Amino acid sequence: MSRSLLQKLKPYYIRKALRYLKHYGPKDFLIRVRERMAPEDVPYGPWYEAHRASGQELDRQRAECAKIQWDGRPLFSVVVPAWKTPKAYLTGLLDCVLGQTWPYLELVIANASPEDEEMAKILEEYGARDSRLVVVDLPENESIAANTNAAIAKASGEFVCFMDHDDLIALDALYEASKAAVRADIDLIYTDEDKIREDAKGELEHFQPHFKPDFNLDLLRSNNYICHFLMVRKSLVELAGGPDDRFEGAQDYEFILRCIDRIQAERIAHIPKILYHWRTHAASTADNPDSKAYAYDAGKRALEEHLLRRGVVGEVSQTKDHGFYRVRYEVKDHPMVSIIIPNREQKQMLEKCLTAIREHTHYDNYEVIVVENNSSSREILDYYKKIQGQNGVRVIRRKGEFNFAAINNYAACRAQGDYLVFLNNDVEVRDGWLTELLGVCCRPDVGGAGARLYYPDGRIQSAGIVIGIGGVAGSLFTGMNGSFSGYLHKASILQDLSAVTAAMMIVKKDAFDSVGGFTEELAVAFNDVDLCLKLRAAGYLIVYDPYAEATHHESVSRGDEYTAKNAERWRREASYMKEHWAGYYEKGDPYYNPNFSLARWDYTLQ
User: How far apart are alpha carbons 222 and 300 in whole angstroms?
Assistant: First the structure.
């Protein structure tokens, strides 16, 4: 960082930059600065102002709620552990909660500052005006978890809503939540959130929005993405138990993990709207992660206990990014893996592919099936003879017009493995790839997993697939600098997605067979997406695993795609997807927030 730039920064930001420089090291620090400083294609501040509920809409909601008969409607208990809360923050919290357009609520504040006369006076004044404010006076400040539990004990609502004492919620937060809460099968609700700070004029500035997917188990194991605004049915809180002070600093993360371990994913609702505003200031975790470094170890322990409860064997470690974790899953029972590689001509490319497998695969129980399709050159035919039977390689032949789906189905029927890896002949795997993918796919809830692929120049080619991008389905982060981690590190952490590319994908053989394999009507395009959706419909997760990496030379062997014949084939296969997965397109990809553009693949706002 240049001296001139440092001189322009405020001392606080200089200290913050130096902390991160020490934490990441010069190289990674500069990469993160470059990524963070990239301009927003759609600036968030104006976007938020355009999308927040208008005064007219808030009045409409109040009028609507005034006509509602309360019986049978959910009562929300907003619980807040408060300690030495500054006046401006406390009154802001009181106003935004008690000013909700949904009136059926109570605000339970556990006041752990018995000596703070100003706090007591403010709470008394508000309580005199609004009986929905319940104050629990604590004799002393204990842990955040203990103080929160004291508030929960006094909560009488059907849902307990968790809020920090210096944050704000949108005035329509509980109105939006009430739509989900009336469903008897919903036990946990969460919303999108952003951060707020005061600008030079004392006005609130909204920044760093966190637009979330619907429930995503592997993302939650990578980071507490649910966080705020969290609302949990009181009966589930009682079943799971309240926050645990053994995990101070990560007590909310541990509590969420404990809750989701007791319910099915279908009982979790996500509201894709910015309804929680996380205040940043010098002492807050939101603006100074190092202020609670102990919290990240507590988060690691919380994850380890979560895996233990679920009977999942995995090693949890912290990443360099604060509050983000990696789980390495154990490969169980040493299963056989069949690596299937379709090939036509392309001797040099195939040789590179097989050499990379041989040099970078540390798992020893695998076979390689090369599926020959219509080659005629002496070079490739001689090469087949050379590799046949060597290093676990089998060459099998399938005649007929190129059909990626049919070729892979043909090989899958002849595979000996319990797991199938579909690998393009223009892919060069990197170190440890198979052990990584296999560990993830060994989990009983996972049907398939895909890798992070790079172009030869180091840019990202695919980091998972979103349904709807580009009209049908498209890869995430295509063209992004490979050293960048993406929006909220989405390119760099394990998460569940709707689909991954079969350029490098592992699938359970029995799951593959149970859904009928690849759909052969999709000869070239979208057959991998269709397979993933069939696996998801059968109840399996599809996992994007960035720790399995490879270089993809992208369709070197396929030839010219831009012909009239190929264009017609693409339209036909796109129509197949739209017709067979119409419900998916209508609802939108659950793993991609509807506020993001489908014309881009980098989490740009609409």
Answer: 10
The separation between the first and the last C-alpha atoms of the chain, rounded to the nearest angstrom, is 34
Q: How far is CA 321 from CA 13, 100, 250, in A?
A: 18, 36, 15
Tokens of 535: 């696996």
DSSP for residue 292: G
Residues 455, 549 within the same domain: yes
Domain contains 329: no
One domain for residues 494 and 559 = yes
Q: Is residue 318 part of a domain?
A: no
Among the listed residues 30, 289, 333, 73, the one whose alpha carbon sits nearest the alpha carbon of residue 177 = 73
| Exposed / middle / buried, residue 25 (Cβ in 10 Å: 0-12, 13-18, 19+) | exposed
Under DSSP, the state recorded for 165 is T
Asked if residue 231 and residue 83 are part of one domain, the reply reads: yes
Alpha-carbon distance of 260 to 237, in angstroms, equals: 11
Q: Quick check: pTM over 0.70?
A: yes
Supply the CATH number for residue 56's domain.
3.90.550.10
Q: For residues 284 and 351, state if they share a domain.
A: no
Distance CA 345, CA 372 (A): 8
For residue 605, give the DSSP letter: B
- Inter-residue contact 370 to 334 (CB < 8 Å): no
Same domain, 280 and 372: no
Q: What is the 3-state secondary structure (H, E, C) of 107-151?
A: EEEEECCCCCHHHHHHHHHHHHHCCCEEEEECCCCCCHHHHHHHH
Neighbours of 537 (CB within 10 A): 11
Question: Would residue 42 count as lying in a domain?
Answer: no
- Residue listed under structure tokens 């592992």: 506
Q: At what angle do helices 527-537 and 564-580 cross, to 10 degrees?
A: 10
Assess whether 366 and 302 both reside in one domain.
Answer: no
593 in a structural domain: no
Q: Quick one: 132 and 240 in the same domain?
A: yes
Cα–Cα distance, 397 to 148 (Å, whole number): 66
Do residues 373 and 481 lie in contact, with contact meaning Cβ atoms separated by under 8 Å?
Answer: no
Residues spanned by the domain of 7: 3-37
Q: Please count the structural domains in the chain.
A: 3
Tell me: do 281 and 403 sit in the same domain.
Answer: no
Average pLDDT of each block of 10 consecutive residues along the chain (606 residues)? 46 57 60 58 92 97 87 88 96 98 97 95 97 97 96 97 97 96 94 93 92 98 97 97 96 98 97 97 55 86 98 96 96 97 96 98 97 95 96 94 96 98 98 98 98 96 96 96 94 98 98 98 96 98 98 64 74 96 96 96 92
| Closest-CA residue to 226 (of 264, 179, 259) | 259
